[in-house]
Amino acid sequence: MEMRQVRVERYGPPEALAVADAPTPRPGRGEVLVRVEAAGVSMGDARMRSGRFPPGFGLLARLAIGLRGPRAGVLGSTFSGVVAEVGDEVSGLAPGDEVAGMTGVRMGCHAEYAVVPATVAVPKPAGLSHPDAAGVLFGGTTALYFLRDRASLRPGGTVLVNGASGSVGSAAVQLAVILGGTVTAVCSAANRELVMRLGAQRCIDYHQTPVAGLTERFDVVFDAVGNLSRADGLRLLSPDGVLVLAVASLLDMVRGGRRVATGSAPERGDDVAELLALAEAGRLDPVVTVVGGLSALPDAYRLIDGGHKVGNLVVLPGR
Ligand SMILES: NC(=O)c1ccc[n+]([C@@H]2O[C@H](COP(=O)([O-])OP(=O)(O)OC[C@H]3O[C@@H](n4cnc5c(N)ncnc54)[C@H](OP(=O)(O)O)[C@@H]3O)[C@@H](O)[C@H]2O)c1
């Protein structure tokens, strides 16, 4: 049986991508074959497609994921779909089950079908659409990990989110509010209405007011853009505050520090289930735009490369 997929052979621009036919894979032991109804297109995919990484990571990243192009070939690390076939030694999942999840460095979701470890296929709540399920996971897992686990945000805490309208930022605004925090959002004026609707108490237009020049102090400063220096971020913190650098350079990571959170957010099934449940309950808006079918991937990447994507982009491989 054949399926359609989008492969990236060499790092490069969105225009180099093309939809191609490939044999539909079969699930091995402990794996399931998922018919992908919706797949996220994220900044993570854009980095893997272009070979562009935060300062200091270029060579290290290419050694890990591929020198001239991503070894994974088919990108896309968040999916929502239907189990089509179950491999040996899989229990608790059967053909027809609706599942969503994340595939990490294995990627492979920009295809009509993807083989994934059964352990990452989390039941999708019936009341949540496939696009919303696939869309909520990239930014959601990142924001949840940094706010709850690294910054230990408590009720009453004050949070500054730089880049509040993007994938990570829009989730950070909402999850900070769910955790009991009060959010000051930083974004362009065009996205003010969105971030206020998501629960921010105040919105700062970075074109008018540079973040580094703010005089107040926050319990969590969450930089989801990568343009806030470590020194400026630390200066904006209250005495016990935590600075989250989601786009840390290698130097920032090596320096670390008790009050600075860097690194990669893990992809945990429990977090995926929690985010799906919050989205189904209407407490977490996935802020999803469906861009089209697999042939719309270049359009999605152009939006991401522009640096002003709003929320999350999703493609529907079956379309
Ligand atoms: N550490 C981790 O585990 C982890 C996980 C996921 C992502 N990340 C990283 O996090 C970063 C954000 O990812 P994303 O998916 O959220 O990106 P995104 O959806 O493309 O969002 C980018 C956002 O940045 C805002 N922005 C652009 N210029 C700005 C400026 N000068 N000041 C303030 N905001 C500005 C844009 O808002 P406007 O349109 O309003 O300008 C846009 O909303 C990426 O670099 C990604 O690689 C890290």
Entry keywords:
six-stranded parallel β-sheet, alpha/beta, 2 domains, Quinone Oxidoreductase, Chain A, domain 1, binds NADP nicotinamide-adenine-dinucleotide phosphate, Rossmann fold, 9 helices, 319 residues
Rg over alpha carbons: 19 Å
The CATH architecture classification of the largest domain is: Alpha-Beta Complex
Instruction: Provide the β-strand percentage band.
Output: 25-35%
Shape: globular
Q: Helical amount among residues, as a percent range?
A: 25-40%
| Structural domains: how many | 2
Measure the end-to-end span: 18 Å
Question: Residue-averaged pLDDT, rounded?
Answer: 97
Report the bound ligands by name, code or SMILES. NADP nicotinamide-adenine-dinucleotide phosphate
Find the count of extended strands (DSSP E, 2+ residues).
Answer: 15
Unreliable residue runs: none
Question: What would the CATH topology of the largest domain be?
Answer: Quinone Oxidoreductase, Chain A, domain 1
Classify the secondary structure makeup into a structural class.
alpha/beta
